[in-house]
Design goal:
The structure holds 2 protein chains of 2 kinds. By secondary structure, chain A is an all-beta fold. In chain A, strands 2, 4, 5, 9, 10 and 11 form a 6-stranded mixed β-sheet that branches. Chain B is mostly beta strands. Chain B contains no helices and 11 strands. In chain B, strands 2, 4, 5, 6, 9, 10 and 11 form a 7-stranded mixed β-sheet that branches. Chain B has a 4-stranded antiparallel β-sheet with strand order 1-3-8-7, with no helix packed on it. In chain B, strand 9 and strand 10 form a beta hairpin. Classes of the chains: A mainly beta, B mainly beta.
């Protein structure tokens, strides 16, 4: 049973544009929602994370929007740059991240000049 | 502060063999989790160790086993390798207490 659904599978955005990746979860016990960035040949690196007591979190050009009632959350990358080209994974876990992470299937983001 | 390191980086085995993958946790981290990432997929949780005890297991058969040592380094052992075990195996460590998990760059395992 896939508990975190991620879309789109791939995304092409022009440099300077806004990249938006969406995720939906099923398990209402989840209380920690991180986003990871993965470059080829590397492990996932934590980008930004949110807990359900807030609806939005911003760190630099990266923003997470969280809708608890809809069980959805999204990553927005403002002013997208070619260096942002990577695969992005949303994830969710219980117990504020102390338990296993359940990952989405990933979004391959390509930023074109 | 050193990050999470995994060894080896690449490994080729044949069906039926056994393999041991190693992970050195980030300094001070007492919790380690192992994940399997098939090509084009998100990581799948295998198990977690906290202070040398297994602390949760995903939907993987018993031929996947692990150890965590007093210095918090860890091993993943896989017996009777199958073709479907070909994947990137990732180790992640954390301090627990709601602190984020930090991943190593993984071991690419290929089964022939």
């Amino acid at each position: 049973q896939q508990q975190v659904k991620q879309s789109p599978q791939s995304l092409i955005v022009q440099k300077g544009g806004i990249s938006i990746i969406n995720c939906a979860y099923e398990n209402t016990a989840f209380d920690y929602f991180p986003w990871y960035q993965q470059f080829p040949g590397k492990g996932p690196a934590l980008l930004i994370a949110i807990r359900p007591d807030v609806s939005e979190k911003k760190e630099g050009r990266f923003t997470i929007s969280f809708n608890k009632s809809a069980k959805q959350f999204s990553l927005h990358i403002m002013d997208s740059q070619p260096g942002d080209s990577a695969t992005y994974f949303c994830a969710a876990s219980k117990d504020f991240g102390n338990e296993k992470l359940t990952f989405g299937t990933g979004t391959r983001l390509t930023i074109i000049p | 502060e050193t990050g999470v390191t995994q060894s080896p980086t690449h490994l080729i085995k044949t069906r039926g063999q056994q393999v041991t993958l190693r992970c050195s946790s980030q300094s001070g981290h007492n919790t380690v989790s192992w994940y399997q990432q098939a090509l084009g997929q998100g990581p799948q949780f295998i198990f977690q160790y906290y202070r040398e005890e297994e602390n949760g297991r995903g939907n993987f058969p018993p031929r996947f086993s692990g150890l965590q040592f007093p210095n918090y380094s860890s091993e993943l052992n896989v017996n009777a390798l199958e073709l479907d075990d070909s994947a990137l195996y990732l180790c992640a460590s954390s301090w627990g207490g709601g602190q984020p998990q930090h991943f190593g760059d993984g071991t690419r395992l290929s089964i022939l």
